[in-house]
Design goal:
By secondary structure, the protein is an alpha+beta fold. It contains ten helices and 17 strands. The protein has an eight-stranded mixed β-sheet with strand order 1-2-12-3-13-16-14-15, sandwiched between helices.
Length: 354
């Protein structure tokens, strides 16, 4: 099926919002979601964005983080080259030879990441993965003074890559992790509002911040909301590519539906309800096994206050934490539909203790 990308999702993917500097993505959320939210989109001191649908006595929290991996300028040398530290986890093999955008108070400053050319390395050096401090950003400056007119220490940086369509339903983008999940939790709320859906639970969708450095936004958001049920929506590793050992990493495929996780981080009754909703709505889904607290917002939502009945949905993704992540729009659409169906299925009489 040929599926056009939603403008809401496209603008989220194009926004530049490294962890701790999520304002661009937050502005997109406010633009597209404000009319669907009771009282508009609310913000807090960590930069989280909140939208509300319904007015039930119990609360369902939907969380999708809007931050992405990036860099932060940490030093400028005498020749005007910028050195940096990482925001979130990077594969250092990917660092050199990339176009980047430095986000400054006066707008973007464009540059490229550099290192010694292969011709200037000996045989041993060519086999080594560069350490972060061995790579720099070249913004075309010829001195420290010239560079300091453009950027400041602490300015965030992201890869400068475009959103590209690869096939009728598959796209490559810099930040499907986790603009796709962020889109899903708000698009589901928009559809509930559009359809005037009846929900026993109040639904609170949150674009969380700083997930990439420790699920920090979700921690404070969940405490403040105090939900009875929480659903984190993030990306999950697709393993349908050459060399991946499925005995170690399972078998998750692009285009085969969202991943419903199981394991200690997941309330078993929430998992079963999600699976029942998917089957009832005819939504293809996959199951993922998580043997420990996940690296997602679900880990802190579950442990908030007296505990929250928590589920986790994953959108299959290839090449996570690279400048060109690949996702399938069919999986994203399935995830939106599943979230909406789950929200409508919740009843005040539900008991998620076990």
């Amino acid at each position: 099926m040929d599926r056009e990308i939603d403008e809401f999702l496209l603008e989220l993917l194009r926004s530049r919002s490294p962890t701790g500097s999520e304002r661009e993505a937050a502005d997109v959320v406010e633009k597209y979601v404000g009319a669907a939210s009771v009282g508009g989109v609310r913000r807090d001191v960590l930069g989280n964005r909140y939208a509300v649908y319904g007015s039930g006595d119990k609360t369902l929290m939907l969380a999708g983080h809007m931050d992405e991996i990036g860099f932060i300028v940490s030093y400028i040398d005498d020749d005007g080259f910028l050195f940096f530290e990482q925001l979130g986890g990077h594969d250092n093999v990917m660092l050199p030879g990339r176009r980047v955008a430095v986000i400054t108070k006066n707008g973007y400053v464009y540059g490229v990441t550099g290192k010694r050319a292969v011709h200037l390395m000996d045989a041993k050096e060519r086999k080594e993965v560069p350490e972060t401090h061995q790579v720099w950003i070249d913004v075309g400056a010829q001195s420290r003074a010239e560079a300091e007119k453009l950027v400041r220490i602490g300015d965030p940086v992201v890869y400068d890559t475009a959103v590209r369509r690869l096939s009728p339903t598959r796209y490559a983008a810099r930040a499907f992790d986790d603009r796709a999940g962020c889109y899903c939790v708000f698009e589901a709320l928009r559809r509930l509002s559009r359809d005037s859906a009846k929900t026993d639970y109040r639904v609170v969708s949150v674009a969380t911040t700083q997930e990439e450095i420790g699920t920090r936004g979700a921690l404070t958001a969940a405490y403040g909301i105090d939900p009875q049920v929480g659903l984190a929506v993030d990306v999950d590793h697709a393993t349908d590519f050459p060399t991946c050992d499925r005995r170690r990493f399972g078998h998750i495929r692009l285009g085969k539906g969202p991943v419903i996780s199981r394991g200690p981080n997941i309330n078993p009754k929430v998992f079963e309800r999600l699976a029942e909703c998917a089957e009832r709505e005819g939504i293809p889904y996959q199951i993922g096994a998580e043997s420990r607290p996940t690296g997602t917002d679900a880990r802190v939502i579950q442990m908030t206050r007296g505990g929250v009945a928590t589920g986790l949905l994953g959108i299959p993704l290839r090449y996570m934490h690279t400048p060109s992540e690949v996702a399938d729009l069919d999986d994203i659409e399935g995830c939106v539909r599943l979230i909406a169906a789950f929200a409508k299925s919740l009843k005040n009489s539900d008991d998620f203790s076990f």
